[in-house]
Input
Amino acid sequence: MPFRSSHFAIIAAVVLFLGMLALFLTLKAPPELKNVPGELKPISYERASKLLKLKNEGVAYLENEKYADADRQLEQLAAELPTDEIGFRNLTICRLLQLTPEKLAQQPAGEKLEELTLKALSQLIQISPESAVNSILSARIYAALGKPLQSQADLIHATELKPKDAAIWFELSQIQKQIPAENEASLAHESLAKAWELQSDNLFLTLEYLQVTAEQQSEQAAIVFEKAKTLSAPLAASVKDHTRLDLNQLIEDSLTAIRDRKWNVVLRNARIMRNVLIAEDLVKSDRRRVEQNSLEFVIHDFPPAFYQAVEWPAQQKPRTVEFAQARPLVFSPVLTSAIKDLQVADFDLDGKPDLVVLTAKQVVIYSQNGELWNLVTQQDLDGDFAEVTLVDLDADVQQMTQPQATEKKEPTLFPISPARDADLDLIVSGKSGIRIFENQADAKTGKRSLEMKAQSETLDTLSGLLAVNFSDLDHDGDLDLVASTEQGLSLWSNRGDFSFRDISNQSHLPPADLAATSLVRVDWDRDVDLDLILCSRQSKQAGYLENLRHGRFRWRPFTQVKTEDGPTANQFEECVLADFDRNGSWDLIGVRQKELMLAETRRPEPGSVQIASVQPVNGGEIVGAHGTVLQTGDLNNDGVLDVVALSSTGLQLLLGTAEQSTEQTAYVKDQELTSAQSIQMYRLSDLNLDGSLDVITVAGDQIVYQQNRGNEYHWIDVSLRAEQIKGEVKSASGRVNHYGIGSLLELRSGTIYQPQIVAGQSTHFGLGNQSVAEAIRVLWTNGIPVNIINAKTDQRIYEKQTLMGSCPYLYTWDGKQFSFYTDLLWAAPIGLQFAQGVVAPSRDWEYLKIEGDRLKPKDGVYELRITEELWEAGYFDLVELMAIDHPADMDLFSNEKVGPPDLAAFKIHTVQHPLSPRAAVNHKGRDVLPEIKDGDNVYAKTFDEKYRQGLTEDHALELDLNIEAVQNAKTAPRIKLYLTGWIYPTDTGINLALSENPSMPSPRPPALSVPDKNGAWITIQPFMGFPGGKTKTIVVDLTDQFLTDDYRVRIETNMEFYWDQVFFTVDETPAEFVTQPVPLESATLRYRGFSTPLIHPGNGPERYDYQSLTTGIQWPPMQGEFTRYGDVKALVEAADNRLVIMGSGDEMRLLFKVPEEPIKPGWKRDFILHNVGWDKDANLHTILGQSVEPLPFREMQSYPYPTEVYPDEEVLQQDRERYHTRRQSSARFWNSLLKP
Output
């Protein structure tokens, strides 16, 4: 799009102004800033250490959002290096990030902050006046100070310096929109157009520009719509599932409207398209490309000349690894054909590693028996296969043969494997395709066998496989398949029954000629989903598949090193993960043209990774040109990952160093392991279970064992198990694959920080001299974190998934302390899926009873505290308390039922004469009356078999109500049934996995049946409703529901319910009660933290100890704006779409004035809490679950709401500007285990 002459006039004027400003600053520059030295003089080790400490700690504090600490370090660094850019650039960024409206409004501190920021900026520009980055920083500072004209001038200067940078043009367009001048809107449009021309493959920019072309009624809109169609193609199917909106049809309708010049339709459709897509991960990712975080401009390191000038002392070599003499392993029967591949895993679940050997003719599994390796099972193969893989594909958790240890241990630590485990299934792949075998154990003998599972018309169509990887691509709790063939890459969703569905068409995959030979699973950009790094020996290319969630991916090249024209990570032919500088960002050790390379990265924000440098590994020698040559592991247990590389002469062992002066010295060569015969492949595994990683090689026709003799350093092995315990029963959760493959493990102990991705049944960490692992964090593949504190070393620990529910919690003042009461908003989930394309209904209101003895007055008020303690966002529109006074000899209930409004309509039910059933049994006739007779916190479990969290066998609760009062009734009795219980629910990920698996049922809510005249059960209410979340009471009116005079009922379901009490009433008339409003006096939002869970010893729900508190960040951040802390009373006084938006760790304190009318003698007071609001679980399968937006509103017909418009009331817009201004800190979560 051409630019107008007025635009050039502004640019010319700005250039003249900046030129005069630069001249003025040069004349005024202090002497020490005038001359930047050429070659550096020698720098002493002591001075270098001081500068490195200031730089490292300053940047670490900055990235951890500890600005005051960062400011001190960076200001000192700038003073030490007054002519270098690094100190002033980073100090300017530090002060820029502090320029919030709140801080600037605080006087005189705000004025002082402005002065210091402008001073640092002035010094920075004097050092480097022609830096586009510095101009951008200047523009952002002036924008924060409310000076958009100066900001515009700086950005125009930046566009001159980097005219092809789309991000600068986009930022300029956003500033120009803020300038209240007649022609600035069109200038903003022109700048946006330029940004789009430069980066037309950016869907976010495309959607933004689409609005402009539609508003301008430009024919260009047709081109932009066509581009939007191409870019949004991976999203079309899921958008249709989630919203019923056909994107392709919408675009076709828009193109027709453009031809017919129906611009109102074009503009409406452009807005709908933006509303639907703006919160999608693909769009967010593209948005980050042009909305650069200021941390992306941080200078992380000194130039190479600095390191060359330092007078380094001789580097202390890490502890060498001592190996026993290599010896061939002895097998019975012996291997008779060429070995193609080797894996080490516990195949038979006896707690010891087995060897799985792929030969030219068969796959053979051996177990260790002293010096001899005996046959477990074998399978003949017909075809050419090169790779064997072992993963659990069917979640067949079974009893292990190894007994449990009897000694008492801490609850989450086990000295040996848990009593239940899932066996590993076996996959072979190669030129002949892929074959899948189920690992089966004879129920009587325990003997193992392999059964091939047919894959007709699916995986059987694959051939010429170069590599495979099993990862949970769609985060539904099972392991899916990534297959690289000579024809290209394909993605396959695991249906859970050994069958797979091709989902490749949902993704933008790499070109077919990539021919990936190396596939690495990792959350590369730390945004809580698994990405895949692909490298190719054939095409000499690399990049990664960015996870866009819901089983969708996009091929992305690695970012280029901006300051170098040398090697790039995109040229890696193979790579492994490391974090050599312990900065919480994955680095890559790669092979490029037989040379070992190290790619150092930075992570300015989740979803964004920068390649900072790509350098040869110092001391690394030429490596092999074919096959897998790289592996990592801490062989000397010093707490730093080492690298093993295969070359033509043997195995190079490069030890990681604990102290790096530069990336060049990150690894030091220790030794080379050689063999008389050429080494074809190798594996690192603790074969003898002594805590040190051994080396197993394949050389010729032998498998050779090189035992690591170890040292006095400590170690710990972490094994994950995705199982849950309720009472005494263990079961597979279904939320995560059994061994947690793909989960992130982070260990912190002393100065040691180690991240690793779980790749097998156990993950090994060395700990050096540390005798305790201070903190281990598990980030499961579904985003749920678990912390293990002070784990003892030199042992294997097993960590289970913890119970994670949903919804905000209510605590009440009981006269002595605040105690947990129940959870809220259970009927109002938004974005929750029952199955693919089936969104759960949401009812935004609830009426919950609070017992009077659980809410006592204090200083003339009743106080409630509502907390958000899980991974979700809570939206409260109204919080209203009503006092219900009634005679003390009666009780009352609201209907706390999940169900549609007509089924769960609010009504106060009074109870004067509760009656117990004559009998209560489950579907197998087991007596459960003792458990459900009284509300005594003893819960009945009516099922025996549990398939997944929340899903069980079909089970029933049969109640016999044929007591004397019913039998003697002269007319059909009016019976009301009261059931108190709770539900342990599935989640969205489990629901989607179940909907894919043809062998598993879907959850069915309780249905109510009564007997007919023949005694057969007849369903009278297919959906009875049920108690939502923690313990609640529901009411079922059975009046006129019975078909005969047999008053029995049967409640049938396959959902996981537990019942505390069941009673009923007969022919009761409503009793007297008085309702009084309890006025809200104040509502205050603050950060509190997380209460300690109290695990119920039986079948009851978890409760929480309000007095026991953890204040650290526990959950990954959600995106978007939450309500700022402070007074929020105006937001919850009425149901008016004004919201309090709460995130994890938040608490809302509510004070209600005690009514002046006293309680009558002989009466008591209970309460009804009336809430209006919604809850959004951050589960990776929740629709738009990682973002606060779009905000819900009472009139919406569905969520998301593609064709509806959020209310445009002025007060709601003001709320966004005044109240909803707080973002969750990503640095506090992701860097919580890092230390500066």
Observations:
- Confidence is low (pLDDT under 50) at residues 1-38, 399-419.
- DSSP finds 22 helices and 67 strands in the chain.
